[in-house]
Backbone:
């Protein structure tokens, strides 16, 4: 029942030891390394965690960061610069060190606050209105301080409802995450195959040695020559040639004013769209103009 939901001030929950909110460690450049735990910044939070390009913090120095190391169940909130990205630390998420661009909300009383419900609550209107109300208070980049977060409030349903909500939404998220990992695996296979065929020329080398190219059917293998020839770039498959991109493709510079078509929907691929989901974005002409 909606009437059973209870209003809590965040400061009261922190005071009674049910919730902890913290920010990241202000690391000096010389403290970071190429090995250790990922040092997570806002750019590493996008529909989960992406640590491929992250700097690292040596494990031998973790005593310096205190509780600013991730724990399973943490809800991550980008609170500086790019404000309003969220991620949930799963049991299989690699441990990482929080940077100052991030804050974490950590349930310390699972009988009162279900950690995964807390994560989904952050996507709701109650939290959105609160953090948006303070994010633009400075002339600099958007920022939501710890003091701002302490002054917030949260409405919690009974624990069984929290768990039911988290289970339903979590099941969908788990499926999305599984699909994402499968796509990453397929993309990795495609990259490896492209390198083998068109960079290392493995099928050509195999045929030059009188062998059937590994993992390739006869029809596909017939598309590759069985030897090499010299070129300005070095050795290339026989019959292939060196050329310029302009010989096979055209750079189109045509533009359109979306404001001239206020009711028409456009698919556009911009830097903000890439940052949000790495996919094209559909918007009406007038909304694009506003951006």
Residues:
């Amino acid at each position: 029942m909606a009437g059973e939901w209870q209003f809590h001030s965040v400061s009261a929950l922190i005071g009674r030891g049910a919730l902890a909110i913290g920010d990241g460690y202000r690391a000096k450049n010389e403290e970071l390394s190429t090995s250790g735990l990922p040092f997570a910044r806002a750019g590493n939070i996008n529909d989960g965690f992406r640590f491929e390009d992250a700097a690292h913090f040596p494990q031998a120095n973790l005593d310096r960061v205190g509780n600013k190391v991730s724990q399973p169940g943490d809800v991550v909130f980008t609170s500086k610069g790019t404000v309003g990205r969220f991620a949930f630390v799963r049991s299989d998420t690699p441990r990482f060190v929080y940077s100052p661009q991030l804050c974490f909300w950590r349930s310390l009383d699972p009988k009162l606050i279900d950690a995964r419900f807390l994560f989904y609550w952050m996507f709701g209107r109650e939290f959105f209105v609160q953090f948006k109300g303070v994010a633009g208070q400075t002339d600099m980049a958007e920022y939501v301080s710890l003091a701002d977060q302490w002054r917030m409030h949260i409405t919690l349903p009974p624990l069984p409802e929290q768990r039911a909500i988290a289970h339903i939404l979590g099941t969908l998220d788990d499926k999305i995450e599984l699909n994402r990992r499968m796509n990453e695996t397929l993309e990795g296979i495609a990259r490896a195959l492209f390198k083998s065929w068109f960079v290392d020329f493995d099928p050509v080398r195999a045929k030059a040695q009188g062998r059937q190219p590994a993992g390739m059917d006869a029809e596909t293998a017939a598309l590759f020559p069985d030897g090499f020839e010299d070129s300005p770039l070095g050795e290339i498959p026989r019959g292939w040639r060196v050329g310029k991109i302009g010989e096979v493709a055209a750079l189109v510079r045509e533009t359109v004013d979306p404001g001239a078509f206020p009711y028409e929907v456009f698919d556009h691929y911009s830097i903000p769209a890439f940052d949000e989901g790495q996919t094209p974005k559909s918007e009406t002409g007038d909304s694009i103009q506003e951006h």
Observations:
- The chain has a mean pLDDT of 88.
